[in-house]
Design brief:
This protein is α/β, with parallel strands linked by helices. The chain contains ten helices and 14 strands. The chain has a five-stranded parallel beta sheet, sandwiched between helices. Strand 6 (about 85-90), helix 3 and strand 7 (about 105-110) form a beta-alpha-beta unit. The chain starts with 5 loop residues before the first strand and ends in a 13-residue tail after the last helix. The structure holds S-adenosylmethionine.
């Protein structure tokens, strides 16, 4: 009996400068593909899809933490079939290279303190695009619903009567932790996992320090680099031990990844000395010490044999 084999993934051509992978989504089949597989390849179908009076669909797509191989198959397929793509600054060139070359590309920006398009303008642009394009991809770093304003954009689309779908991505906390070999939970160290946004407002972070300082938990801080000294100071002031392991990971999952592991007492000085730059993720908790025992083995050569 013929077994249907169909894979959809990224063609792995080496980038000319030797870093990362670039490529286009590819489909391979042994000719015995199922209807379900073919539907994935064709993309969404439905009444009115080609009717100009019917708005297109906006897909809020998670691009993952950086490594294009961490995209979902659905994200790769939608990028390849997009008529328009609105993307943030955290989406790297390797992921953007997967977008349909004929698609309209819109840069929405959103670096710290530098929003190329204000959020209301992004919302309006998505609605406008959906009225003249079939497949509109709103491509956001990590997962659209984790510190990504995906909720606000979905609300705007719903209010305007535009069909939309959320395509989850690997959020930076999970991608970065895996790449830095920090298990976010561990039965010996952490039963609670907390994600917080650590941006500063007037030099402080509006966080529940007493809750974050409780032992037996891992705290992962997005957007926290500028406030790192304040973060470490507050956690210690609220009872977390100064020798609690903590790490900062820059450009997690990318060839430029750098990891600094220290303690709450020493991390700010170590990170300043190393000159780490955003995007970075801060991980606080005993799980960081597990990474030391996992760092000794070389990575598995899973990409060595291209199909
Ligand atoms: C506006 S938040 C968006 C988060 C995104 N929606 C997600 O689910 O990962 C951006 C922050 O995510 C973190 N981040 C994203 N990608 C990262 C990476 N590759 N390495 C380290 N931190 C990253 C940084 O803290 C950055 O400031």
């Amino acid at each position: 009996m013929a077994i249907p084999i169909r894979t959809e993934g990224l063609a792995r051509d080496r980038h000319p400068d030797g870093g990362g992978f670039v490529g286009r989504p590819v489909v391979r089949t042994n000719g015995a593909g199922s209807e379900a597989a073919n539907r994935i390849a064709r993309g969404p179908v439905g009444p009115g899809r080609d009717d100009p009076r019917t708005p297109g669909t906006v897909y809020l797509v998670g691009a993952g933490p950086g490594d294009p191989e961490l995209l979902t198959l659905k994200a790769a397929r939608l990028l390849a079939s997009a008529d328009a793509c609105v993307y943030d600054h955290l989406v790297g060139p390797d992921v953007l290279s997967l977008v349909n070359p004929d698609a309209e590309l819109v840069y929405a920006g959103k670096e710290r303190g530098h929003h190329t398009l204000p959020q209301p303008d992004i919302n309006t642009r998505l609605v406008d695009l959906a009225r003249r394009a079939r497949v509109v991809v709103r491509l956001k770093g990590g997962d659209p619903f984790v510190f990504g304003r995906g909720g606000e954009e979905a609300q705007a689309l719903a209010a305007a009567g535009i069909p939309f779908e959320i395509v989850p991505g690997v959020t930076a906390a999970c991608g970065v932790a895996a790449a830095a070999r920090i298990p976010l939970t561990h039965r010996d160290h952490a039963h609670t996992l907390t994600f917080v946004a650590g941006h500063l407002r007037d030099g402080t972070m509006a966080l529940d320090w007493s809750a974050l300082a409780r032992p037996g938990q891992t705290v992962v801080v997005y957007m926290g680099l500028a406030g790192l000294p304040e973060l470490c100071r507050q956690l210690v002031a609220h009872g977390r031990a100064p020798d609690t392991p903590a790490a900062v990971v820059q450009h997690g999952t990318l060839p430029t990844q750098r990891v600094v592991r220290a303690t709450l007492a020493t991390l700010p000085a170590r990170v300043a000395a190393e000159g780490l730059k955003p995007p970075t993720m801060i991980v606080v908790g005993e799980v960081v010490s597990v990474a030391e025992s996992l760092a000794t083995l070389a990575p598995a050569q899973v990409l060595a044999a291209d199909p």
